[in-house]
Known about the structure:
Blueprint: H1 2-43, H2 47-81, H3 104-108, H4 114-133
Helix pairs in contact: 1-2, 1-4, 2-4
Amino acid sequence: MDTKLKHLEFIQDTINRLSTNSFLLKGWSVILVTGLFALSAANSIIEFVYLAFAPALVFWGLDGYFLWQERVYREVYNRVRSKKPQDIDFSMDTRDVSDDVPGWLRATFSKTLIPFHGSLVGAILVVTIIMLKRGVK
């Protein structure tokens, strides 16, 4: 039973790292977008706002990847949990379970990521429209 618990602990540590990466990505996304907003406002250059789309979209995709991987490892966890202790091999291979979990694109547009990243992209759109209406070029 100790081997089974240790293997489950390894998998849970991986899941925790993935969720930490997701949290850090969200922070970096906000920091970069607000920094580009500040540069744009200080210099009245709309290109910085356009540039803000890049990190927002890239980090959204990366966050979706980490969420997908987290779901895959949760499936690995569930399978290891149901194994007999003598069948534990400490494998962290996800190839046999990744087809059972919805893919990266579905995770990227999940109900947990759309509110955060969608509102960030929406804010960029709103700032872009406001700056264009004010005639900032």
